[in-house]
Amino acid sequence: MRGSFEKTVLEPDFPFRLFLNDGFESTPHHWHEDIEIIYLVEGSVKVGVGNDLYHLKRRDILIIGPGEVHFFLKEMQTSNRAVIQFRMSIYDAFLSGSKDIRTIRPMFTHSKYLTPSTEVHILMEKQIQQLINENTSAKEGYKLIMKARLYDLAGILIRYMPKCEYSAEAESRQIEKLQKLDKVFQYVDKYYQTNINLEEISKVAGFSLYYFTRFFKENTGVTFVDYLNNFRITKAEWHLMEENDSITEVAYKSGFNSIKTFNRVFKKLKGCAPMQYRKGIKSSPWSLQ
Fold first, then answer.
1. Which residues contact 77 (CB under 8 A, 6 or more apart)?
2. Domain 169-282 maps to which CATH number in 3.20.20.10, 3.30.70.2190, 3.40.190.10, 1.10.10.60?
3. Which of 154, 180, 214, 249 could link 245 by a cystine bridge, Cβ 3.0 to 4.6 Å?
4. Which InterPro entries match (predicted)?
5. What are the residue boundaries of the structural domains of the chain, listed by start?
6. HSE of 70 in the Cβ direction (CA atoms, 13 Å)?
């Protein structure tokens, strides 16, 4: 589980994928080049995007722009979400000039949260459901139909959502910011089992300690300490589910040098003690044991 840049492998001639996720596993902070649309089929899920935390319920739609740092919190109850990912290049045939680029690109730059009963949601939901149906049936010509639905999505956003300016300078700043964050995420992924302090991670990002704490919170929505704890607990979840190590071994493998701290942080984030969590996993309907 990497908390950094996510390299998705999409077909060059049709850079698109759609899959269902039951929300049973946490997804740590990450970002990718793709546009991502989340559609809640059933249940609920909490999604963090930058400094915002969205609590999605059935039929809600969340659009996450390329390069936006986001994460998903684990759901203990039944949940099912459709995840649609595609590249801006899918619109290349339409983006024939700079005016077209300035029109369509801003529609996918920042996250957009759409709830039922609004006109734009009704229109978007219809296209998303058709995408799901076509992707599932995969009948002859389905890619052509799905591409048409993606064009419809862009058209709906352009027509019904507030317009915002596209700036090459803003995009350049965004790329620089993501490069800084990626250094931090990569470092945590490699050294989370060691004692990482704020001074150390600030140097990795190339910032003073004061500026780094502000920078990280503004761009991820959490403090670095909270991010590190969440990352380590996500690792602990995997060990508890997949291995038979003792709780003490799980704590040390996950980067905690104190059992007391591990139990406290785990209970705070997951609502139960590690041993209770393991027992609950083994008796859950998702367990294959």
1. 43, 44
2. 1.10.10.60
3. 249
4. AraC-bd, Homeodomain-like_sf, HTH-like, HTH_AraC, HTH_AraC-typ_CS, RmlC-like_jellyroll, Tscrpt_reg_AraC-type_HTH
5. 16-160, 169-282
6. 25
